[in-house]
Amino acid sequence: MLTCILAAALLLPSSVFAADPQKPSNPKLDKEDVTSFADHFFQQKEVQDDLAGAILVIVKDGEVLLNKGYGYADIAAKKPVDPDHTLFRIASVSKLFTAVGTMQLKEAGKVDLDKDVQAYLPDLKIPNNTGFPVTLKHLMTHTSGFDLTDSMINPSVSYSLERFIKDTVPTVVQKPGEVFRYDNYGFNLQGYIIQKMSGLPFQDYMTRHVFEPLAMDSSSYMYSERVKQALAKPYDNTLTEIEQYGNVPDCMPDGGMFTTGADMARFLLAMTGGGQLGNSRILSESSIKEMEKKSVTIHPDMPGIGYGLESSYPQFYNGYTVVEKGGDLSGFHSNLSLLPDQHTGIFLSLNSDKGNLRSVFFEQFMNRYFPKTGNGPTFVTPEPSKQQLSRFEGLYQHLRTPAFRSSITATEGALIVEDLFGTHTLRQTGDLLFCDENGMPAGFKLDANGNVLYLSYNYTDSWLEKLPPPAKFKDVADDHPYAKYIYQLVQMGAIPEGTNFEPGKPITRSQFIGQIIPLLGFQLSLQPASFTDTSESLYAAEIQTAYEYGIIRGYPDGTFHPDEPITREEAAAIIWSTAKVGLGAAPVQAGLKTPASTWASVGVQFVVGKHLYGPDAQSAAGLVEYRPHDKMLNQEAAALIYLFLQNLLS
What we know:
By secondary structure, the chain is of the alpha+beta class. It contains 19 helices and 20 strands. It has helices at 2-9, 31-43, 45-50, 94-107, 136-140, 161-167, 184-198, 202-211, 225-230, 261-272, 285-292, 357-369, 386-389, 483-491, 509-516, 540-548, 568-583, 601-609, 634-646, and strands at 53-60, 63-74, 79-80, 88-89, 258-259, 276-277, 280-281, 323-329, 332-339, 344-350, 394-398, 405-411, 414-419, 422-430, 433-435, 441-446, 452-456, 464-466, 618-620, 623-625. An eight-stranded antiparallel β-barrel has the order 11-12-13-14-15-16-17-18. The protein has a six-stranded antiparallel sheet with strand order 3-2-1-10-9-8, sandwiched between helices. A two-stranded antiparallel ribbon has the order 4-5. Helix 4 (94-107) packs parallel to helix 7 and helix 4 crosses helix 8 (202-211). Mean pLDDT is 92; it is low at 11-16.
């Protein structure tokens, strides 16, 4: 789902209510204190305003300190969350369990983490253009080098893991192990390898080898009627109920697990207890340590990626070793955090899209029980000059979701970063290592020639790649009023390079879809064209993808008219649909001099209210002349798309 792809990419800043107002002088992490702390946290008005329901689990030194439900599993029925019986989707936290399954097969000698995965896939050929093999280590650390890591299939019937893997196979286009890009396909492929090498369906393997040994009796990867009856209802960012949905594929190793607080408490006890709970062992202590260690990082002094684990909130670690796994699906958001040296584990799961309670809770928890020691980062002295820092300047594009980007400029002694989270100042703390004003680390990676190639900073699910300067069009000078918009989209790959851009020419409906859909970062649809007149279009897959996500609808006769010029109100309606479907955006009121068509009014008001236009719209007396019925020109489309991306989170 588009919502989860966008949500997973974002490490949202801490809330304004992130302080712990009742922190005692020397709090002790025990049952009494942590219960008081958690109860007070969920009683805060700001938390209550954002909360549908939650399960919270905290373990330490082999003991469950807290397993408690807060809020409602069903708001309308006022049904409270029961931590022992209410099921939550834990989304991508499921990946950690899948990685445990892979490590079990490694301990049993059935797989080698450094061996080409093709050895385990005689019935599947993965295209590889690099000459380097993909291994299970690469799959567990999101460094496969696949060109497509998020697959979209909306079947009307049950869709098996085997069929899914074979229908959505990607191509290896980057050297495996070189760059971190969140990889859902890689974890589904792990699940398929577990299935092939164990001789058991993935769900049966996980039940027999993980759930049953830990007495996780309520947990499952399958969306059954039993699961549906016990599952908390999901809610959007307005706390409006979302319809329940199944798994694709049906067992979904990358994010399909359902569980309770009680079951997660047992799993946390095993993970913090060296792989053992009571008389049951799911992994050796050495395997647990191997999973938790930093296997991939852009810089040795930065947090990195383990096996099924990553760094979600490094600005809150306070100098402690923390490994985490977050998960996001529509209506459900979870985070699991482990402090290996303190034998402590935390799990928080929510059943709504509203707010940012995971990071707020984790910040308060860490500041209370594991406060910062020392004086913070030590900055390089003397400060580097603007000239020394100039090699870092440029536009960096998110590898998973191309719509996300960071622009870096050098000043005397610092780098200025502009991105979706605002403007930040990075000061140097080491070679290729920086830190911002909030304690968030940033690191860079060079290519073989010493040129800056990648940035890792405040996006949780991918590094960013430094883009080369865009080639220039003969008919778009640098001082052209739309040059900024046009050349940023060229640099991001949304507009193809060429001799002329024809800025004053109308853009077609298919061209507009073809520019915006790839920037959202999900795999294009593999389904046949739903419209009768798009199968031969250059942008047939993009159009079909937009249709399946509900971004476009077409005409009543089943056509789309791909080669017709798009009107300004049609383009605005598409932007509004993308914002609503992808981010749950709310409507915006705006004064229009010329009214839009009834069906396009909300979209035009959204675009005007968000100021997503260049010089093509004029304001007077509080009204904007958007010219909704005019054809949209190439230059105007560039401004609309660029400004939409620029204001994606506003």
